[in-house]
Amino acid sequence: MSDSSTSDLFSYLKEKANRSSELRSQDASDAAADASDNARNEAADDAESASDDPSNQLNFEDPTVGERLRDASKDTLNSADFGIIRLDDEGIVQFFNAYESNLSGVDPDEALGQNYFNELAPCSNNRVFYGRFRDGLKNGGMDEYFTYTFTYKMRPTLVDVHLYRDDAGNNWIMVRKR
């Protein structure tokens, strides 16, 4: 091979290596930018999800939890670490969350449409529990905390109960095992 051929080949290979290096640098920059964009988008999505559902972290101890239940999604209600039951004014179950289902052994679908005090938890049909519910309805407001022992269809289970009627007229029973 002549010196000029060798020189041309060497120049060609050097130019190709430079272009290849530039492309790799550009690909790395693009990948880093994409990763950064993806991270920002995921963080924004997480923040948006949190702001869409202000009740996504329900806490039994939170004094505002009763009002927050009304706007909470079904998923949020079901992921709470305490029982949540919504009743109409006659005591008919309209919602029964997963925690309460696990505690009571009653499937949520089975609970819907049943009278809580007569059919689902007749051990609560007394002055201590149902009496407070009835008084809250009569007075137009309910925000009662008390300790109770459930005994129906389960071994005696000590719980904290929070009865609450929200501003929209929804009746809530919140139950946390002690």
Descriptive tags:
178 residues; alpha+beta; Beta-Lactamase; 2 domains; five-stranded antiparallel beta sheet; 7 helices; 5 strands; elongated
In short:
This protein is an alpha+beta fold and 178 residues long.
Sheet-strand content, in percent, reads: 15-25%
Question: CATH superfamily name of the largest domain?
Answer: PAS domain
CATH arch. level architecture of the largest domain: 2-Layer Sandwich
Q: Any idea what the radius of gyration is?
A: 31 Å
Shape: elongated
Element string (H = helix, E = strand): HHHEEHHHHEEE
Q: List the domain count as a whole number.
A: 2
The number of E-state strands comes to 5
At the first level of CATH, the class of the largest domain is: Alpha Beta
Give average pLDDT, whole number: 82
Q: Helicity level, as a percent range? A: 40-55%
Q: Uncertain spans, ≥5 residues at pLDDT below 50?
A: 43-55
Strands ordered across the widest β-sheet: 2-1-5-4-3
